[in-house]
Design brief:
disordered C terminus; three-stranded mixed beta sheet; alpha+beta; elongated; 5 helices; single chain; 7 strands; two-stranded antiparallel sheet
Length: 165
């Protein structure tokens, strides 16, 4: 009896598989694939990737940096700026021989580690509030020029430890 039941099950299973036809392909996914073809492509088997450039590729100063400068180097601001600009596509312009100097100042200990933050913010951070960051995108050079007048709120007062202003 069990043998007959087994044979009946096998035949019904085979008949059920043979009776069903394959479903027709739906045309909707093809339309979706066509509309997104310019933005995403299939890569490998199950991965879709974007064909549009990343924001960091469009605006090089928006790239996120994370640097650490060894403490034993005792670097200057200029050396830190050059280190920061390595492999970014930008270079540091020459400091004018006349006028104030930024590049020769010692790098503050607080700036030995920067990031993660956008490159433009890191450059302005190294320059400080007294210096205006200027960028020549054609030559891909980064320069600093002194700001006109410092914000009076940023100037420190000359008070003794016992006095309050």
């Amino acid at each position: 009896m069990s043998r007959q039941l087994l044979l009946a099950s096998v035949f019904s299973l085979l008949a059920g598989c043979a009776a069903h036809s394959a479903p027709e392909a739906d045309s909707a996914p093809a339309v979706i694939a066509e509309t997104h073809a310019a933005q995403r492509i299939s890569h490998a088997r199950y991965t879709l990737i974007s064909t549009e450039p990343l924001p960091e590729q469009l605006d090089l100063l928006a790239q996120i940096i994370d640097i650490r400068i060894p403490a034993n180097l005792n670097p200057t601001v200029g050396e830190a700026l050059r280190h920061l600009l390595q492999r970014t596509g930008y270079s540091l312009c020459a400091e004018p021989s006349d006028g104030p100097t930024l590049y020769r100042h010692a790098l503050p200990a607080a700036h030995y580690q920067l990031g993660p933050l956008p490159l433009k913010q890191a450059l302005q951070l190294l320059g400080g509030p007294a210096w205006q960051l200027t960028v020549d995108d054609r030559e891909r050079q980064v320069c600093f020029r002194p700001r006109g007048e410092l914000d009076p709120r940023r100037q420190t007062s000359q008070t003794t430890p016992g006095e309050r202003s």
